[in-house]
Amino acid sequence: MVPTATTRMLALLVAGAILVALWPGATIAVAGQKPFPVPHRVDPLGPDPNEDLVRRWIEVWNTGDLDAVDDLLAPDFVRHAPDSPEVRGPAAERQLIATYLAAFSDLRFTIEALVTEGDTVAVRLSAVGTQRGDLFGLPLAGGNVHIEITETDRIAGDKIAEQWVVIDAPDVMA
Description:
Elements: H1 5-22, E1 27-28, E2 36-37, H2 49-63, H3 69-72, E3 73-80, E4 87-88, H4 90-103, E5 108-117, E6 120-130, E7 144-156, E8 159-168, H5 170-173
């Protein structure tokens, strides 16, 4: 059986769908045609609400908008982090943010990677800032610091209910 134009087009569409799923950002080259990039996957249902919630959460840290904490965290929120005190409730998290922002007034977070699966969002962040004050009794490191953070959030309803946070901050710990 000789492939028809329709079967060739169908094969290209299937191959393109596989490329989109496996290699977003790759380039497809078809003989006799101009190469074109593989589009990034687009969710036909729109942005993931849990991803959007975590992105808004990171902006709270970037803007210092402590009034938004109650809108984003569940009333029984718990933050687990091996290198800082366990936090229970939005008011305690608000105080923790204020403590960090007092020590690093120009602290700025950048999302490096973000993955959503059901009610769980994992995010890898980098942050830069200048330590201008004490942080949990640690002496002033001075100069700019670079911090790497891995955060896993459990979402309940439309709020962050629980976080597991690991911070790598050798500049601050020096």
